[in-house]
Amino acid sequence: MIVENTQTQMRKGILEYCILSIISRGEIYASDIIAELKKAQLLVVEGTLYPLLTRLKNNGLLTYNWVESVSGPPRKYYVLSEEGKNVLEQLDKTWQELVYAVQTAIGDRK
Question: What is the model's pLDDT at position 31?
Fold first, then answer.
């Protein structure tokens, strides 16, 4: 039980970073974000993703464009705003610092 809770908290802690990184590659549809996360073995459902995307948008990190679809209603495609690009750049630095800190802390344990 303790292991699963810790694993969940670790994943939640990096989810926004991963989503911003995926969106930074270019305009992307929400289901494609889920597919990218799944490919990275970060399983996220729509009920988790959409509120997160809304919060990121409300914080000024994302914008979106409506694109007509040939197979149904228009689709919302997300892109990073300039502020989102700046935040992602800062998170990249923080991630590198964390990787170094964790690798240093666990050392030769294995």
Answer: 93
DSSP character at residue 59? T
From 19, 49, 50, 24, select the one nearest 36 (Cα to Cα).
19
How confident is the prediction along the chain (110 residues), in pLDDT tens digits per residue? 789 888 888 888 899 999 999 999 999 999 999 999 999 998 888 899 999 999 999 999 999 999 998 888 999 999 999 999 999 999 999 999 999 999 999 987 76
Closest CA to 31 of 12, 45, 17: 45
Separation of alpha carbons 18 and 34, rounded Å: 11
Structural domains in the chain, CATH included, are 2-106 (1.10.10.10)
Strands (E), the chain: 28-29, 62-69, 72-80
DSSP type of residue 81: -
Q: What is the dihedral of CA 89, 93, 99, 100, to 10 degrees?
A: 160
> Is residue 75 helix, strand or coil?
strand
